[in-house]
Amino acid sequence: MGYSFLDILNRVLDRSGVSSSDTTTLPKVKRGIQTAYEKVIASKQWGWLQNEETLNLSSIYETGTATFTNGSKAVTGASTVWTASHVGWLIKMTGYEEVYKVAGRTSNTAITLEQVFNGTTTSAATYILYQPVYSLAADFDDLLNADEAFWPYYPNPVSVDRMRQLYNQYPTTTGKARHYTLLGFDSDGYRKVMVWPIPDENYNLRYDYKQIVPTLQFDGQEPLIPNSWRLPLLVEGGLAEVYDILGDARLQLQAQKFN
User: Fold this and answer.
1) Mean pLDDT to the nearest integer, 136-145
2) The pLDDT value given to residue 89
3) pLDDT value at position 258?
4) 15-24 contacts: CB < 8 A, separation 24 or more?
5) Number of neighbouring beta carbons within 10 Å of residue 228
């Protein structure tokens, strides 16, 4: 175990002479430590903020046939093995341009669309079921190098509009990832990425990224900064920020120590 937020806070309180029972000043002291933490983080590309993760891409699924009914969200399969993992994927009937999102699955041969099917009722239709969007790591903040972010295939970054164009122009193209774009967040708050073309098999992409820096707010919480640096950086820096917030005359001397 390393130095926690509480360890740092107690040292700043002791050095500044602020009482832990001073409910007016205590939040300002905590804010000062957080400000110092953010300044350290922003000062350079720290190696300890970098992380690596694997993105598991799923192959296109097109086994069996499917029956689509005009005005209905229900799709019935024949010789299909649709699983719970297919919920959230996109499905496209062969010969029909519109793409639908799978909202639910009740059996190997029954799924529900997010919207009603607008095409002509078709039985035993061929189709493709695929996943173009994936969630990134929970602590993902940003890619370290956009042009070489995902390896070993190194897809090129493109805009959201360009990604839409690719899927509109080449909706059934499969292969290894050639392009990607970062999107918003999923229901769990994780950043999303969209890849093109549709994966032709299950394979992995590795990616290097900068971690999100969580706010220091819990007593036992440990900063991402290496343990040996926590006291000199966050105590001295925290004191400088606290003196600034409080208008303390010791600010100038303390700021010199921190800088």
Assistant:
1) 94
2) 97
3) 60
4) 15/235, 15/239, 16/239, 16/242, 16/243, 16/246, 16/248, 18/242
5) 10
